[in-house]
Amino acid sequence: MIWSIAWKNVWRNKKRSLVVIVAVTLGIISGVLLVGIMEGWVKQRLNDAIYNEVSHIQIHNSEFIKNEEIDLTVRNLAEITRSIDSLQEVSGWVKRTKIIAMANTSWANTGVIIYGVDPEKEKQVTEICKKIVQDGGKYLDVQSPGDIMISDKTAEILKLKQYIITDSIIAKLRAEKVTVNVLTKLETLKDMRFRSPKDFREALRKEFSKKELDRFGLFITDKALDYRIRNKVQITTSDMEGTPIQGIFRVCGIYKTTNTGFDQVSVFINTRELANLYGGNDILTHEIAILLNNIDDAGIVKEKLSRISGDNSVMTWKELAPDAAMMNDFMVMYYFIFIGIIMLALAFGIINTMLMAILERTKELGMLMAIGMNRKRIFKMIMLETIFLTIVGAVAGMLSGWAITEVLGKTGIHFTGWGEGFEAIGFAARVYPILTPQFFIFITIMVILTAIISSIWPARKALKLNPVEALRTE
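User: That's the sequence. What structure does it adopt?
Assistant: Structure tokens below.
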């Protein structure tokens, strides 16, 4: 009976109720989208950190972590590799040589970390092979001696990334329906080489209006990009004795991940090629990267390997990528912060609406009390009205937010203007929002709690009414 009365009371003033319902719906939609974007970013960062950078577990010589010298290799290598092979939790693992060096071209130089890898085994642990940029060459191949793979960022620093407008580029732009006026202006830049995106953007800015740049600037820049594949890169490092040594390699491929910091310093060479450079008869192993079937097993596997690690250090992804670990662990806190702020704002609107309803129904509530409805039932009725009002808006908001997130989860949201800044801290410029069942359970609980808390003040206001005085109210 009380439930039926409460539901009918919600719709006695349809306009006012709809205003609150729409407000709750929009608030929930914004909360769902905000959390979906945050969840997507965190999952992408975690995925990229594990499958591009650190894997689930790494093993190093304990001293190598403090001072990355060439002679600080993994100890008890044979025993450790046998133990890794015996673990059912392991999906794949690789040994790597890791050396600090200087990379030079005819135009620039930069410090890098050289990873000596087995290309085929590396594919079982990382996804770098899938990150080769369009027209950026190919992945490392053991059949191609003297190759080096560098990142898009390293190519930019070493001036191996250039921008040039040619007849073929203009033809491609014409096929993409770029306006004749823009193509005519591009003729003035034809066959000019620009060795940095800043210089190329500056040249475009001089030729085009702001409106033309906003519409075609990024598209032209993308088409004009040209990597100097097969160009020579000189690597300078030290051998086992500390003597400076040099080697010449040719760029076979350009890769690009979402972490500019990782890209800027990481270059890859075949393990045997790197061994030939530092003059070692044996391939040095400075790092063992392990990929697991289940990320939750990282702590268990670390404990097993630590028993036989000796002078080596065993570290999980949480220690190797603390930024991704912290964000992943604190997602529930983000839920509370984002949804809590939205619910707090909505609560004031709900309280105001219910107080107005109480004031309008003072005589009616007095009559109900006078004919015998006890205060407990009055309190329950007001609370149910508030819950119904909030739940209707919340359900509409969750369904709408889920539908929008599903669409954006497939198309992605590209933060073009802030892409470079996001990638500098390891986050993708294009994010694919995702939602988990746990979030919907969480938001449902938060909505119900908000409704109950919001109903207390109006309900108490109703309970304080004097039936005799209330009946005299016009």
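The mean pLDDT is 86.
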